[in-house]
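REQUEST
  id: r-88c1
  op: predict_structure
  target: Carboxymuconolactone decarboxylase family protein
  payload:
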Amino acid sequence: MSAQTPDYAQLTADISAHLKPLRTDTPAVMKAFGELGKAAITTGALDEKTKELIALAIGVTQRCDGCIGFHVKALVRLGATKAELEEMLGVATYMGGGPALMYAANALAAWDQFTAAQASA
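RESPONSE
  id: r-88c1
  status: 200
  body:
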């Protein structure tokens, strides 16, 4: 892993740890955000995997490494394929241009990290 590529398992763990004070100090807000996330991702007309692909596309276009980490981790858990990931990244790049392409590369790095961790578990 290069100095420029985040360790996505560590990044997501660090973010979760850094959010603990907000969970304590603003519990209603954090509970509402968690409930919103669950409601948004719950299978309906679109399945959970499709919704996670959409969430990751938004994270890529918004240049959010934390979002990339959490949503790639979810996609690996949900059994997404690398081909599905790459097609979505193509659309994200189309919509977000060059900056999104740079974060698409980060999403692929996160994919490699989380799939390697899953394979060794």
